[in-house]
Amino acid sequence: MWSKRQEVDYALQRRSALQALKRPQRSLESLDVCDADPLLIRAAKYHGERSDVPCPVCRADHLTNLNYVFGDQLGQYSGRIKSTAELDEMENEYGEFTVRVVEVCISCGWNLMISTYLLGDGVTRRPPRRQQTVEDIYG
Predict the structure, then answer these.
(1) CA-to-CA distance for 67 and 101, rounded, in angstroms?
(2) Mean per-residue pLDDT for 3-20?
(3) pLDDT at 10 over 80
(4) Rounded to an integer, what distance in angstroms lies between the CA atom of residue 54 and that of residue 129?
(5) Domain segments of the chain: what residues?
(6) 93 within 8 A of 108, measured Cβ to Cβ
(7) Which string of DSSP letters, residue by residue, matches 117-138?
(8) DSSP type of residue 74
(9) What whole-number distance in Å separates Cα of residue 92 and Cα of residue 103?
(10) Is the pLDDT at 68 greater than 90, yes or no?
(11) Does pTM surpass 0.85?
């Protein structure tokens, strides 16, 4: 991704949450950390990209990454999950949009935003015309 900029890595937040799990006083319970929404787990199961890193809580190799895209220039497509290949195409089509990468374990429900960054070629564009969806047609 040639236009990747303003990257924020949340490795310290991840490490802090995992260290809190290991402390004797247990300031965080396992249930507090592994609280992924069922819709997030379903999205990870069907739309996520497998990671080489095992789950830090349950050690399962079901850790997946989800790339959520947000931006004014995306129009109705803002807030959707995109694959890395789609992000490569989108950075030439849109001026600027934010990508938030979330890691999710399908087995235990561990989830954490691991990074955010901006993509796009910097040319300001109008959002695409709104296209009708099934909800618009059938209510």
Answers:
(1) 5
(2) 88
(3) yes
(4) 41
(5) 5-13+31-122
(6) no
(7) EEES-S---PPPPPPP-HHHHH
(8) G
(9) 26
(10) yes
(11) no
